[in-house]
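Entry:
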Amino acid sequence: QLQASGGGLVQAGGSLRLSCVASGLRFSLYALGWFRQAPGKGRELVTALGWRSGKRYYKDSVNGRFTISRDNAKNTVYLQMNSLEPEDTAVYYCAASGYSDEYLYDEDKYSYWGQGTLVTVSS
């Protein structure tokens, strides 16, 4: 089970940090991802972090502004979002995958999903 939090309303240029706490799984053995779904659009992978290789992926439009990190001792994954833009407005979902890091980009391989937290960026 994953529980996401930290969303809210922020002005363009501002920052937010999302958190996602996991329970009931061996957290350190899971790759982690943050997805988002904007109004009227499909869900997309924003960033992901492998568990074995430590490999990181960032969607081009967030690279350099967003940072994914994990604290295995706290069973928590974070998404630090800086220089937010109105285009970042979406419901953000955390997810966990028990597959190897080569499947980091494959949404179908993420078995556990958080409930979503809304991020709204005003212009």
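The mean pLDDT is 96.
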